Amino acid sequence: MTIKQVSEQYHISVDTLRYYERVGMIPPVTRTASGIRDYNKEDLKWVELAICMRNAGLPVEAMIEYVRLCRIGDTSIGDRLHLLEEQRTVLLEQRRQIDETLERLNYKISQYEIAARTGKFPECRCCHKC
Amino acid sequence: MTIKQVSEQYHISVDTLRYYERVGMIPPVTRTASGIRDYNKEDLKWVELAICMRNAGLPVEAMIEYVRLCRIGDTSIGDRLHLLEEQRTVLLEQRRQIDETLERLNYKISQYEIAARTGKFPECRCCHKC
DNA sequence: TCTTGACTTAGAGTCCACTCCAACAATTAT
DNA sequence: ATAATTGTTGGAGTGGACTCTAAGTCAAGA
């Protein structure tokens, strides 16, 4: 699979795909005899994982470290487990923060909906007059 | 309340507090006669809101626009409601993405726990041998 | 009064995660 | 065969969100 096809399938730019490989966020991709990238199934799995992690906001650095650990073999299993658990903690905290903000947003939106209908804000416990 | 006290109370640097004000992410803060910031209750509410939004990962730009709309008065209520709903959509999508990544992470972690105990991976449906 | 520490601004610097560019090589279409 | 497209690299540029520095002002204690 060419870089362009991968780019289209995963809605990610070819520049970003090359960047991920260059910095080690995914292992080196399979190449044709003439040096052109030809993503195989496993390469795609790595791409998918990288995109998933980045979409959740995890740092590129963490993926680079994970890939590095994978490449040194079985002796790094404990370290890899530790890394994954750390990133899970980060995501759980991030989700908690999002939920907190969503609650605040929902309250503000409800006040604004009343304001939009009635022309003025109700008895508003909301911060700074909403 | 001085900038330093606010900085300590909200675990945010004084530089960031000044930056938020400078770019318009919060309205101008109350000052003493000699020009020194003296955050009052309402100023603090704005700081709190700004921090909450940023912690959830919402862009500074969105808060700037919200503050701008608030400052032009009641005619912007509809626009403010629209902005808040947009940001809520962003957060819901972000949370969905985090949940997806958490699921993947949890599966990988479970495989690694087995591997760490037994010394090798179980029949692994996980991508790239975990 | 003097020193110490906290405050002010404007502007420069940093870090992250891309994103773009130049110059060239390989493949595909006509 | 040639033109267009897609690929390659190394390196420079960008945008977002801070973070730091310089040069100076203000306030509280000895």
Verbal overview:
Two copies of one chain form a homodimer. By secondary structure, chain A is mainly α. Chain A folds into two domains: 1-72, Multidrug-efflux Transporter Regulator, Chain: A, Domain 2, CATH 1.10.1660; 83-130, no CATH class. In chain A, 68% of the residues lie in helices and 0% in strands. Chain A is built from five helices and no strands. Chain A has helices at 3-10, 14-23, 41-55, 60-72, 77-118. The radius of gyration of chain A is 22 Å and the shape is elongated. Chain A starts with a helix and ends in a 12-residue tail after the last helix. The A-B interface holds A 42, 45-46, 48-49, 52-53, 55-58, 70, 74, 77-78, 80-81, 84-85, 87-88, 91-92, 94-95, 97-102, 104-106, 108-109, 112-113, 115-116, 119-120, 127-128 and B 42, 45-46, 48-49, 52-53, 55-58, 70, 74, 77-78, 80-81, 84-85, 87-88, 91-92, 94-95, 97-102, 104-106, 108-109, 112-113, 115-116, 119-120, 127-128. Chain A binds a DNA duplex (30 and 30 nucleotides) through helix 2.
Quick summary:
2 copies of one chain form a homodimer. By secondary structure, chain A is mainly alpha-helical.
Q: Which CATH-level-2 architecture of the largest domain in chain A?
A: Orthogonal Bundle
Give helix % range of chain A: 55-70%
Distance between the termini of chain A: 52 Å
Q: How many strands, which pairing sense, and closed or not: the largest β-sheet of chain A?
A: none
Individual helix count of chain A: 5
Number of domains of chain A: 2
Form type of chain A = elongated
The radius of gyration over CA of chain A amounts to 22 Å
Which structural class matches the secondary elements of chain A? Answer: mainly alpha
| Low-pLDDT ranges of chain A | none
Q: What name does the CATH topology of the largest domain in chain A carry? A: Multidrug-efflux Transporter Regulator, Chain: A, Domain 2
